[in-house]
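Entry 14. Two folds queued back to back today. First construct below, sequence then structure tokens.
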Amino acid sequence: MKRKYHKEPDLKRVNSKVILFNNKELTAINGYCKKYSVENKSQFMRESIISAVLKKFSDDYPTLWDDSQLKLFTKY
């Protein structure tokens, strides 16, 4: 019996972007993938990029207080 996978249309990967690397960058990426046994480089790069984007969004998220006011709530 064949399985049917129901994916949300918005999650289907239909858009592409091209990234160009210089020789040193590519050597570093290939070395990392070999050292840590990364089998799917596309998935690795996609997850790395999205992680960086989400972290930046989280860091830039507005708060009720600025940094100097937040220090009032922390102990030494």
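Second construct, same run, same settings:
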Amino acid sequence: MPRSKKIAAVEKILGNKTGAERKDAAKKFVEEMFARTIFTDFDKVLELYDKSEAEIKALNDPLIQFAAELEKENKEIQDRYDGFVGAVYKLRPQWIQGLSEWKKGNLYPDANGTIRFTYGYVKGYSPRDAVTYHWITGLNGVIEKDTGEEPFDNPKGLTELFNNKDYGRFVDKTMNDVPVNFLHTTDTSGGNSGSPVLNGKGEIIGVIFDGNYEAMTNDFVYDPDLTRSISVDIRYVLFITEKFGKAANVMKELQIQQ
């Protein structure tokens, strides 16, 4: 990150270190912090609710101290954000009035702070002549895009799982691959990201996280030929959790039925 964008509380710890030395310093700081903090002890954390601010500061807990340093910077960021939001709010009434006149009626809200339900079909699309996007992608495509540099820098463990075809129970036999993302015709908007996607039986099949490039106008006009939501396939979520993340405890807690 450019120096003007770096987090002061972090730079205070890591200084001018670079490369491997910087990573080692960060790792050492985190390990020492968690070795000393009370936040690994549930009962001690509960006791904080009965302490005053002065008593909490007197604990000299490294995690609390680090959070306090971060909060100083967060306050400055929040002040700048509040100024921006205030300026936008002056323009928002004109914006809504224009949309209402154009729509000739009421507008439905975005998904932030509201409960929305929408339905559609899993379906690909063709945005222009001789170009067709299939409705599903697989792990093979993730590996194909790997360049070793952000944003396509795959973790070594993921590549090893692919090379060994170690897919476990998450392979789709029709694809002979692990499903990654899929497209569907649902009408979604800002705030829908993270919402569960259910099939006709009420089973979770994915989590929405984006929309396609050609449907950027979807907040204004829904085009059934082009509008597509993009969801990560729940099998990929579970594959990453179990095979890559080795989080057997999480899988056990979820009680996955397949």
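Quick look at the second one. The first helix runs from residue 8 to 14. The chain has a mean pLDDT of 91.
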